[in-house]
Amino acid sequence: MATLPTPCSATAGSAGTSTGAPFLDNFRPELLRGGLYHADGQQLDEVYVYGSMLQSPMYQQGVRCTDCHDAHSLKLRAEGNAVCLPCHDPAGNPRFPTLKQQAYDTPAHRHHPIGNPGAECRSCHMLEKH
């Protein structure tokens, strides 16, 4: 399933504001560079902007925005760690055959007890700065 780029997920390197025009006529996705990204490629500021998503290991493996978010409301498809489990499940996911089949939502993987904010997948894998 393809994901179309949208202004709500683009770093505002705006090139114009023509409604209905192709995405790249209005926005310039940013490359991994100092000032926007840490040296290891992690985002320095915004979380999961379009350019970052395209350059992420998850995108390279076929994960799309709509795997986690509803395409129309942008709301998460599930709450907490449940949003990650359709792919990161001990039974695996046929879309991602190279993903290790293991129990990710466990204290052994999280290193935090249930109920602790550190036990949320996003605490390590989708750090927010704001």
Give the secondary structure arrangement, pairings included.
Blueprint: H1 23-26, H2 50-55, H3 57-60, H4 65-68, H5 107-110, H6 121-125
Q: What is the makeup of the main sheet?
A: none
- The first-to-last residue Cα distance is 30 Å
Please work out how many helical segments DSSP would assign: 6
Task: Supply the helix-strand structural class.
Answer: mainly alpha
Beta content: under 5%
Series of H and E elements: HHHHHH
- Spans of at least 5 consecutive residues with low confidence: none
- The total count of strands amounts to 0
Quick one: overall form?
Answer: globular
Helix content: 10-25%
Mean pLDDT across the residues is 77
Radius of gyration computed on alpha carbons: 16 Å
Structural account:
The chain is mainly α and 130 residues long. The chain is 21% helix and 0% strand. It has helices at 23-26, 50-55, 57-60, 65-68, 107-110, 121-125. The radius of gyration is 16 Å and the shape is globular. The two termini are 30 Å apart.
